[in-house]
Write a structure and sequence with these properties.
- The complex is a heterodimer.
- By secondary structure, chain A is of the alpha/beta class.
- Chain A has three domains: about 110 residues, no CATH class; about 120 residues, no CATH class; about 55 residues.
- Chain A has nine helices and eleven strands.
- In chain A, strand 7 and strand 8 form a beta hairpin.
- In chain A, helix 8 runs antiparallel to helix 9.
- Chain A is extended and about 90 Å long.
- Chain B has four domains: about 60 residues, no CATH class; about 210 residues, 3-Layer(aba) Sandwich (Rossmann fold), CATH 3.40.50.10810; about 200 residues, P-loop containing nucleotide triphosphate hydrolases (Rossmann fold); about 80 residues.
- Chain B has 23 helices and 17 strands.
- In chain B, the strands form four sheets. Chain B has a seven-stranded parallel sheet with strand order 5-6-4-7-8-3-11, with helices on both faces. In chain B, strands 12-17-16-13-15-14 form a six-stranded parallel sheet, sandwiched between helices.
- Chain B starts with about 45 loop residues before the first strand and ends with a helix.
- In chain B, about 40% of the residues are buried.
- The chains are: A alpha/beta, B alpha/beta.
- At the A-B interface, helix 1, helix 5, strand 5, strand 6 and strand 7 of A face strand 1, strand 2, helix 1, helix 2 and strand 8 of B.
- Strand 11 of chain A pairs parallel with strand 2 of chain B, so a sheet runs across the interface.
Chain lengths: ~290, ~600
Amino acid sequence: MNVKQIQKFVLSYIEATGCQILEKSPNHITVKLSPDADRALTNRPFYWSFVDRCGVAPETMTYTWIFEKAPVPEAGIPSTPLTSLVTGGVRVAREEIYFGSRRLTQLFDAVRQAGRNVTMFEEPPRGHRDPLGSQPYTAWLGVNFKVGYECDMKREELYGWGISLATGVIDDKFYEGLKDKRLTPRLPANIHLLRNGLSLRKGLSQLENALERKIKTSDFGWAVEAENRRQEERNRINQYYGPLLERSTEDDEQKAVLQTRQKQREEEIDWQYRPRVAVSIVNCGIFHLPGID
Amino acid sequence: MHFPHLSPAGMPSGTSSEADPAPVTKDAFSAGQQLGTPGSDTPPRLVHPLVELKFNRTVFEELERRVERNGPWDDWQMYRLALEAEEANRVSDFHELQCTRLLPAFTPLPHQIETARKVMHEMRGRAILADEVGLGKTIEAGLVLKEYWVRGLVRKVLILVPASLVLQWVRELANKFDLPAVPQKKEYSWGSDIVVASMDTAKRDPHRQILLDNEFDMLIVDEAHKLKNKRTSNYKFINELRKKYCLLLTATPVQNDLSELYNLITLLKPGQLGAEGDFAANHVVDRRVPKNEAKLQESLGQVMIRNRRSDGGVEFTRRFVTNVPLHLSEEEMALYQGVTDYVRQHVKAESGDIASMLSMVTLQREVCSSRDAVFLTLVNLFKKTQEESPLRARIWELVELIRNIKSNTKGEKTIELLQAMGDEKAIIFTEYRQTQNYLLRFFNEHGIQAVPYRGGMNRGKKDWMMDLFRRRAQVMIATEAGGEGINLQFCRNIINFDLPWNPMRVEQRIGRVHRLGQKEDVNIYNLCTVGTIEEHIVHLLHEKINMFEMVIGELDEIVQRLDQEESWEHRLAKMVLEAADGEELRKRLDGLGDTLLEQRGKSKRGTKT
């Protein structure tokens, strides 16, 4: 993520949570958090439980987030007079936001928490609308999968797929397609929803199966290499413990200790090297789109 | 003791370690069977003979619940941002280092990045980092940790360091790497993701049991040479800990014995150097002399990285060394002569015993430092000597000589030096606690702010002293024990009030100040009393072997090679005691210096091949 992208991301978050922008320049932004954002970001559970219980008006925090260090202002030019005017002397925390900073990491976590499940409707096209007619809408299950290929190293892929709950058709560019559509959380007028042929569960299973087929065709060279490493490591510890165990045939206690140790090392090696694929769901939702497929 | 978030990242649940091929699950295409499976993880399916696939359905199950209850629904923009965040954090490639673009606070040096890369791709996250002092082992470990962290391969991390370094590690990880490390303070601290603790705490119950009951995605041990002995509780404890990736940091992987190295490597990768018997047979001639060196180097290279200053690529500021010759006052000289005579006689009386020999030489060295240092030793000696012994009277005479001394020549010279520095900070090293106390008093009388630093202080106090020195005091007075692990790059003046005899320890002192991050040239002052053994030692270290300007890596090696037969200190002590006069002592010391230079020549040739 470059500076521009980060800035855009943060601004979107501010907008989505209804925070109030007090000051803005290409390099920074000063923002008074909305209650929602404050709850998510400031880590003040006691304060918020106090507000909730006593019903007092909350006082949210104000931050200045710096995206790129501006050149040092020349002498004579006061640095940030405006902020202190607007905030009325409230303390403003200054933070740098860059990829990898704790604040941005926290923002990432906050949006993951706050953007898990949606139900959306595409707005019907404007204009030639038959006031008496009703447009048929199909429900889609849209799922954003994250596929992690893991051994002692890791690589990830994202898939934004969708399945029509009416027909079972799978669209592997589903999420991309949504980007161009105008979506609303409210049920539009003059539409009717088609009956679902598939349950949500069934829909998900079919998506998973399709994804599994795709994964199966991928290149598993990395896994073979990881497995070789794993075997190598196992041979190595066997070489080490083998002779030790032979020598300790008489001492049962000693032998048991060695065996435990060997087993532990083997488990560690498996833990470290065993190639595996883990698929998780970033978020998923139900999307009602015009059409009957 | 259970913590909610202790399950480490990536641990295959129900480790099917014994059965090699993963258990074949039901035909993946009869998907109907998955219906109604409780829990979030589907049973593993096989996507390749070697690879299991698991689906985690947590987020979907939440969708189902919300459908049932008809909401509440999340915001569409948040939904999109969540995916954007995921995309931004995605690890797109197995190999490329991700973390370097995430570190705005500093830029790692090329050798550090290369080390991190090697640790991950060639050593697969289990390695000994054995860089020479001052090249940034902590940074390298931080890079590796950050990279695994960013990739989500590591969540639960244990870092074991000497108590005095705990806060420094926490700070470094926070400031440079933005990693949420916490110092271990109470039992509940163990629940945090990245915990920095002292080895001594960790290996004690109840902590020990808590740690053994857990699994760590990554274990880092600093000053790992303390794990060289297989029979110690430290070693056993580390051996028992369950860990995936593991880094051992030490500047001196071999101190006395090749088997130390073998033990260290066995912690990481048992069998890397063959079975125990094999190692001795294949690689060891004498306990300190390796056999099949090329082959040993190759096996070592697979688990150990050692960067040297002499490899270049790292720029250090210059060192200026000044010897400050001093003439002891008449009274001080009288005491020195008195002690020297006593030592000579005494050694003749009970020749051969190394320990008592060393303590005799210590007396002489103490006189050169301060009367306070020698006073306590004399008093103790007096108490130990039997009442009827004629030596008692001799010792008491010496104590009487101390009474006559009214001033400390070295102390006064030090004040002169400090005044000449203006308001620049300086660190003063002495070997003796009594001298340290004396100097604190003495400086206080002269209105110079000074703080002490010594090994015996607890962690908090050490940190506090460092802080005081950084912010307020002009001077820090440190005893030898304080040498390990403190970083004082903000100071560029070192005064060696007295010198240790082992050049390695001198180098350690200098290394506190002259290290990466030091932006100024460094001044080193050696106080040296003319006509005493100190003069001879300074001559040996400074003029003969020129150690102050030597590249440090060489020194490690040379001293280690020489140490093989007899420890350096013993050798020097013997020479001092056996020499009839100054002339002869100097000759013999020159001889020692020559051997050392010879070794240096050898080791230079050795590294070239």
